[in-house]
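Usage

Read records sequentially. Each one opens with the input sequence:
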Amino acid sequence: MYENNSAAEMYDRLYQDRKDYRAEAGQVADLVRSRKPDATSLLDVACGTGIHLAAFAELFDRVEGADLSEPMLKVAAERLDGGVRLHHVDMRNFQLDGTFDAITVMFSSIAYLRTTEDLSAALTAFSKHLTPGGVVVIEPWWFPEAFIEGYVSGHALTTDDNRTITRVSHSTRVGNLARMELHYVTADSQGVRHRSEIDDLTLFTRVEYEDAFEQAGLRAEYVASEPGRPGYFVATA
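and closes with the structure output:
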């Protein structure tokens, strides 16, 4: 997904209109500092185009980002103007040259992992990059019992440069996957363009998350959030 810069930029504009990234970053910072009051460094894994990362940079002395998508990282680098280190890595097996007081995974990106083995591998990699007493905060995808078969979502945005972007999605369950069929239509002075994609997100159970944290040597608790969002797992080393 987001295999080119234009798709990443479209994602960037559309979701900024839907989400309060700054407020979410503040919530996460509060969760981190309730466990580690002296936290000053943070790694945002699956940082995407860097919107959360930009907000985290206002709340922590040192922040870095990591993502598997090069187009997303390119947009993030432009947003952050070279002021934040970005890493092109796979969350399951990365090795960086530093440790962090906090590691985050936002926007349910953890659910792009396919198996519990992948989940355990990622959390183990996180654990290896934590300072003593460090904190992991993960925004999971929905648990299986919360999934709504046939769920439909839509959003439209008109930008300052007279461009309109619309997004509609339809979700079905295939085994332990939530399969979202997404369609984007962009209209501007050059005409109308359409692109579509299928996003498969794994419906890990709460127990599967908790077992993966335990295997990584992390003590985790689930913290519910406001309606319409899947909450957080907060774990300490």
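Summary fields computed downstream for this record:
- Residues 21-35 form the longest helix (15 residues).
- The chain has a mean pLDDT of 94.
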